[in-house]
Design a protein that fits this description.
Helix content is 29%, strand content 22%. It is built from seven helices and nine strands. A nine-stranded mixed beta sheet has the order 3-1-2-4-5-6-7-8-9. It is globular and about 45 Å long. The relative contact order is 0.16.
Length: 221
């Protein structure tokens, strides 16, 4: 069972899969505590806020209501909603609080690809064919450390930046974990002009890539 906060179809707006039609499955629960998080409603798992899957699917605004869902039930929702995308993004919250192998394998068996978006602070339990996006959350209020194993497993590293300190922290983490050769994206926090300029300059300097959260510029979910 997976604690699901929302399920929706859209266009992936970040990282290597930017522009790809995708089904987002947002899981409930995250103790990392990022100050700029735009999904704080997924942090707490309150048993009193558990609802049915139809109630989750009926939501029209962010909320901390969630439902326990099996992989089979999730696939049934995809079919009932007529979702056409074949790429599934499992995000949160912090999805790696869960063993994602059963969910991803069920998706793969039905012809879907899977992508995991994680902070890198929990062990990444996914099949080898899943695409793993680690957005390393360094020195966050929750006190969790970014795991070297998560960085090693990453297919891409997507790092939010607002100031030079965030770039310096990433450089140190890459050196410590031996992951300087990874595919790396910088993502300006909240589309701030200063952050965007810093990200562009740093990407050019290090031959990294820029991720600008295209969905926010387009005004879509």
């Amino acid at each position: 069972m997976y604690k699901v906060n929302e399920v929706f179809q859209t266009i992936q707006g970040e990282g290597s899969y930017t522009g790809t039609p995708a089904i987002f499955v947002r899981l409930q629960g995250c103790p990392v505590g990022c100050s700029w998080c735009d999904t704080k409603h997924t942090w707490q798992i309150d048993p009193e806020l558990q609802v049915s899957l139809p109630e989750v699917m009926a939501k029209r605004a962010d909320s901390d209501y969630w439902s326990d869902v099996t992989p089979a039930a999730l696939l049934q929702v995809f079919a009932e909603r007529g979702f056409q995308a074949k790429h599934v993004v499992i995000t949160g919250g912090e999805p790696c609080m869960y063993d994602l192998v059963p969910l991803c394998e069920a998706l793969h068996q039905q012809g879907y690809t899977s992508q995991i978006e994680t902070s890198g602070t929990f062990a990444v339990s996914v099949p080898a064919s899943s695409w793993v996006t680690v957005s390393p959350k360094i020195n966050m209020p929750g006190g969790y450390q970014v795991l070297s194993a998560a960085m090693q497993r990453a297919n891409e590293i997507k790092h939010p930046v607002a100031m030079q300190k965030h770039v310096d922290e990433l450089l140190q983490l890459l050196e410590q974990t031996g992951t300087t050769d990874k595919l790396i994206y910088l993502q300006p926090i909240s589309q701030q002009k200063r952050a965007t300029e810093l990200a562009i300059a740093t990407c050019i300097e290090h031959n990294w890539r820029l991720s600008v959260q295209v969905h926010k510029y387009l005004g879509i979910e």
